[in-house]
Every structure is written in structure tokens, then in C-alpha cells.
Specification:
The structure is a homodimer of 188-residue chains. Chain A is mostly helical and 188 residues long. Helices cover 76% and strands 0% of the residues of chain A.
């Protein structure tokens, strides 16, 4: 019975981001997002639990992608290389949404509560990566340190990617960030 | 005019932690904490803004200690060594409060909101360390990567310290954790 809705989620996401930028996250209501997208509030709630979830629904998919990529790496791969490979795969996917990611980051940076949510999602990614490394037989504390190092690499690369004006893509920045971590920690 | 209060803060802290363990953080009221400590609610609020702050007031002092230690390191110190030295100083201080730290961590682990707060405090530590490294002339992304690497090292060392039954102290675990990060990221 429902109307045909071409990519309702995408329309809602775009509308929400526009409004968060124009009015601020706090000041935007679900009713306004639905209206801007030309959809009903009911449709909104079929896609998202609340207005915050519009910004974070991708985090679960990203985590699954990272975990499954680490899990599929050959046994011979060093833990840090398995993590780096997964981060590059995720980086390629995010690269396709660079403009969206930049706008989203501007909204998150403007709101402490959203910023905290982002930090918590990153920490969950770290725990999930440590868990999949342990399932691959990596012991503690190696598993946790490798996962946390991966998160540090990703965080810094992502920060450059959304901030800066260079044309380097995210997988490239991730590789450079890992190289930098290697030289930072190298014994002199 | 006020009564003589030997270490009111310490008594309140101890009373709060006991109650958080016995009843859970959510179920404990400020009135109960004050009563257990033999002090008034008014005295509680002279020391702490709310019952959550009892668990986190030390984070600000820890951050200042880390930042000032990094700032005082000789110019010749490599960034990662400056960060590691600061973490060991902080580790020595925490070592004196091991029993308290373990109990506190059990309370935090049992409450998702407190766990999130802890993650956010750790992220703030990372930002503050990156900032002091930049003031020492360390460029980006080296400053951020070094700081994030330091946080990864600290997080894993702290996790072992509050969890495990070994007799190794926190500064020792921090050194081992950094060595482990070095071998994890070493090119093979």
C-alpha cells in the first residue's frame, strides 16, 4: 500500500544533515527532517530510532566490515597488517562518501554530546578488533595493543581527511598514518 | 566556624565507593554517601558537584600532571619518550591507590554511562598530550599519533593493572606495554 520511496533512507539522511548544519542538531526536529525529505515522520522512524541515529547508523556496518575483513585475512598476516588491511577497506568505502563525511564531521564537532558518541563508537571499534584478533589466536596484551594502535592510526588519518584540502584519499592517509606510527615508536 | 573535618574528601570518596559497590551507582544518593561518611550533604557539595564527580575528580589532576611532565622534558627527548615518561610518573601516583583504583574500576565497568565517561576522559588526555607536544614544536600528524599511541599504551597497561593478580606495578606495565606496541608495529 505504501508509496514508492526511492532510497528513503538516503533522502532522510541528506535532509537531516542539511538541517543540522543550518539550525544546529539540537534545534532540529524529526518532523522537520521528514518534511524536508518529503516523507512522513512514520517513514523516518521506519529507518531511524531517533535524530541522532541518522549520524551513527553507519558505525555498526563499519564495525562489521572491519571485523569480517580481519577475520578473513590469511593466518600468516601479522596482526597489525590484518588491522591495517581492514582499515584500508573501510577507508575505501568512506572515500566514496567524502562530502557527506565532511559535513557530518562538522555537525559532530559542533556538538559535545555527538562528539562523545563518536569517541564511544571508536572505542567500540577498538574492542571489536581486539576480540577478532583474539579469535585469530593473538594473545593479550598484543591483541588489545594492536587494535588500539589501529584506532589511533584511523583516528588521525580520518581527522586529516575530513579537515584538510589535500587530494590524498583516506586509504592513502591510513597507510601514511601507520608509517608515521611506526617511525614514532621506532627505537632510536 | 565550621567543624574540623579531617580529610572530608577522602571520607566521602571512601563512603561513596562502598555504597556504589553495595547498591550500585544508580541506586546510591548523595544523602546516603554523606550519612555513611558521617558528614552533611552540604559538605558533600563543597567537595563534589554530584555523585559522578566522586569517581572522576582525579582525572583533571592526572591530565595536568601528564601535560606538565611532558612540558618539562628536555628538548632532546623524542616525543614518544616524553609521553612515556609522563605516563610512568602518572602510573607511580596511581600505584599508591591500587586498591581504590580497582574498586573504582569495578563500579565503572558495571555502569555503561560511567564507562563512557571514562572513555571520554581518556580521549581528553590524548588531546591534551597532543597539544603539549605541538607546543614543544612537534608537527602534525606526529603529535597526535604520539599522543594516541601513549593513550593506547596507558589503556592496555591500566587494564592489566586493575584486572590481573600479578604483582607488577603500573609503571612497569606501562613500560612493557610500550615495548609491546613497539614490537607490534615493527616492520618484519
Amino acid at each position: 500500500m505504501g508509496r514508492w520511496e526511492p532510497n528513503g533512507r538516503g533522502r532522510l539522511e541528506r535532509a537531516a544533515l542539511e538541517l543540522y548544519q543550518e539550525r544546529g542538531f539540537e534545534q532540529t526536529t524529526v518532523a522537520e527532517i521528514a518534511k524536508r525529505a518529503g516523507l512522513t515522520e512514520r517513514t523516518f522512524f521506519r529507518h531511524f530510532a531517533d535524530k541522532r541515529e541518522v549520524l551513527f547508523w553507519g558505525a555498526g556496518a563499519l564495525q562489521e566490515l572491519l571485523v569480517s575483513t580481519v577475520a578473513r585475512m590469511p593466518d600468516s598476516a601479522a596482526p597489525i597488517d590484518a588491522v591495517a588491511a581492514a582499515l584500508e577497506v573501510a577507508g575505501s568505502l568512506l572515500q566514496e562518501r567524502r562530502e557527506y563525511s565532511r559535513k557530518r564531521q562538522a555537525v559532530i564537532a559542533a556538538n559535545p554530546e555527538l562528539h562523545e558518541r563518536e569517541l564511544i563508537k571508536l572505542a567500540s571499534l577498538g574492542s571489536a578488533m581486539a576480540e577478532v584478533l583474539r579469535r585469530r589466536g593473538v594473545r593479550e596484551p598484543t591483541a588489545s595493543l594492536t587494535a588500539e594502535a589501529g584506532i589511533a592510526v584511523f583516528k588521525v588519518a580520518f581527522g586529516s581527511w575530513v579537515d584538510e584540502t589535500t587530494s590524498r584519499d583516506l586509504p592513502q592517509l591510513i597507510r601514511e598514518s601507520l608509517d608515521e606510527l611506526r617511525s614514532v615508536t621506532a627505537r632510536r
